[in-house]
């Protein structure tokens, strides 16, 4: 079947637009002007009249957590809480309204820097105000630090005598008892205190996330959900959705491991790149080298300026990192590593340079986040051709704290995504959802303006790093396609490319750039099929 999209402003590439395109069997056949496309289309072709609106390639989030988004949409959400008291009230209300939570409750989304009472981390005493009987584990918005109540500590058997884990720690009070604050791998100690969701519950959660994702214009996601310890559940769910025709976008697994032995077993018994198809693919090994800037667990080379004696957490040792990356390199597996602090960047580049051993970066190893950097590190990333999987939307919050965390000089060379692209690093964009909303347009606006939604800081954070709208869109489309070896099939609206596209309600190339973040998606198409349509948005005939 043919579909013609006409009367549009179709973004082809920087400086080039068309007014129509013709699709057949999910692939773009021709891009041109409306009259010519209508003349070429079959008489029974479906015609989508964009009404002069902007048509963009479908957005491709190069790093997020779709299953966690589904969980966030279906359970207690702590995002936007402005005080500890508000969190306590939300928790009590949720438990009262959801009797099934009596066996335990996970929640996430809080940020102590937004609290108006005490700007501190939640602890067990705060959560004990919600319940002393139901185990509670509430993670910070970054996911790298969290609080547990006394019931959760008791169920996990954690006391002042419990040994600290590798790659994380839990806090202790002056009397030696746990304070209920856990970071990085210490959070793993709480995994079993709350009954896990069933596979069917997780499937229903991810369906909610998928519906939301296509409504904001995502046609591809590279999602870190599967990995060590999940028993293959995520793989099974995604394969089932794909086989049943319920996957409205293209999904690529980023698979996490922290144990070389577990990764070796996965390579021997589970990894099969041949199962990849146009909708569902197994992608890179995803590693975590450090934590987050907001939680002060990002690994720095020097102490935090506002927390002397602390330079963050190394979530994965150099020896483990070397072993995992060596295994991946020898088996032809791409690696992408979570690095936020300059210490994590440095150590990860050391490992990558070892495994590359002077060879080109043909497997496209990358750095996820890549936030705190100095000039020498930026140049090294470019020289090695290491990919950057960035989240400019983090600037909304981080621009207000980065200088206090790392100092003025280092802040001026951080979040340097434009510079990285100039120096030779292939840059892609995403949101790390649900850390941030997976809506791509606030992220594009952040890359263009380098400001939060209120227009701060005035003039933009390091304004020399501001991108053009075309550069930002390309990072979200063609750049993300390159990160998954799909640059010849998606990321552009050109003949031979998959028909993944969106129609939006405003021309982001022409409007005031501060309005880009408010863009609404009117129609989303994946593989030539309309998977989302906003009511009264776009006229469709045939």
TrEMBL record:
Pfam families, sorted: Amidohydro_3 (PF07969)
MF (Gene Ontology): hydrolase activity, acting on carbon-nitrogen (but not peptide) bonds
Domain Amidohydrolase: start-end pairs: 46-532
PANTHER family tied to this protein: IMIDAZOLONEPROPIONASE (PTHR22642), PROTEIN LONG AFTER FAR-RED 3 (PTHR22642:SF2)
Domain of life where this protein originates: Bacteria
Name listed for the protein in its UniProt record: Amidohydrolase
InterPro entries attached to this UniProt entry: Amidohydro_3, Metal-dep_hydrolase_composite, Metal_Hydrolase, YtcJ-like
């Amino acid at each position: 079947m043919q579909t013609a999209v006409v009367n549009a402003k179709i973004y082809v590439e920087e400086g080039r637009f068309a007014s129509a395109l013709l699709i057949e069997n999910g692939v773009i056949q021709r891009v041109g002007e409306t009259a010519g496309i209508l003349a070429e289309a079959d008489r029974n072709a479906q015609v989508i009249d964009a009404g002069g609106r902007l048509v963009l390639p479908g957005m491709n989030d190069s790093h997020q957590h779709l299953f966690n988004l589904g969980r966030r949409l279906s359970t207690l959400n702590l995002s936007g809480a402005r005080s500890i008291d508000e969190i306590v009230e939300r928790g009590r209300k949720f438990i009262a309204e959801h009797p099934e939570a009596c066996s335990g409750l996970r929640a996430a989304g809080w940020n102590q820097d937004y609290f108006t009472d005490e700007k501190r981390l939640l602890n067990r005493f705060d959560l004990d105000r919600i319940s002393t009987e139901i185990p509670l584990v509430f993670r910070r918005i970054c996911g790298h630090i969290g609080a547990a109540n006394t019931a959760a500590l008791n169920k996990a058997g954690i006391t002042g005598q419990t040994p600290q884990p590798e790659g994380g720690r839990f806090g202790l009070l002056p009397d030696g008892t746990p304070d209920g604050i856990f970071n990085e791998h210490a959070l793993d100690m709480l995994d079993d205190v709350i009954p896990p969701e069933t596979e069917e519950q997780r499937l229903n959660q991810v369906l909610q996330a998928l519906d939301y994702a296509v409504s904001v214009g995502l046609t591809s996601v590279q999602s870190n959900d599967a990995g060590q310890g999940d028993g293959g559940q995520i793989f099974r769910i995604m394969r089932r959705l794909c086989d049943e025709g319920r996957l409205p976008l293209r999904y690529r697994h980023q698979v996490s491991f922290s144990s070389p032995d577990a990764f070796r077993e996965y390579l021997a018994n589970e990894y099969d790149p041949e199962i990849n198809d146009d909708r569902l693919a197994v992608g890179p090994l995803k590693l975590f080298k450090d934590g987050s800037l907001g939680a002060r667990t990002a690994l720095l080379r020097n102490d935090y300026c506002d927390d002397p004696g602390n330079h963050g957490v190394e979530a994965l040792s150099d020896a483990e990192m070397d072993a995992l990356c060596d295994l991946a390199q020898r088996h032809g597996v791409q690696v992408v590593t979570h690095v936020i602090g300059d210490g994590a960047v440095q150590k990860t580049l050391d490992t990558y340079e070892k495994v590359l051993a002077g060879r080109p970066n043909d497997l496209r190893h990358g750095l996820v986040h890549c936030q705190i950097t100095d000039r020498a590190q930026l140049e090294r990333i470019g020289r090695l051709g290491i990919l950057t999987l960035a989240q400019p939307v983090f600037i909304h919050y981080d621009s207000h704290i980065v200088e206090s965390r790392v100092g003025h000089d280092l802040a001026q060379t951080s979040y340097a995504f434009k510079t990285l692209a100039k120096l030779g690093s292939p840059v892609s964009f995403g949101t790390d959802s649900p850390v941030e909303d997976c809506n791509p347009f606030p992220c594009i606006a952040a890359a263009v303006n380098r400001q939060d939604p209120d227009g701060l800081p005035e003039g933009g954070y390091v304004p020399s790093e501001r991108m053009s709208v075309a550069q930002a869109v390309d990072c979200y489309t063609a750049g993300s396609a390159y990160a998954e070896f799909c640059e010849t099939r998606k990321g552009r609206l050109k003949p031979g490319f998959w028909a993944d596209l969106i129609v939006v309600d405003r021309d982001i190339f022409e409007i005031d750039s501060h309005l880009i973040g408010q863009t609404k998606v009117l129609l989303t198409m994946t593989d030539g099929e309309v998977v989302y349509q906003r009511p009264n948005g776009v006229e469709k005939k045939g």
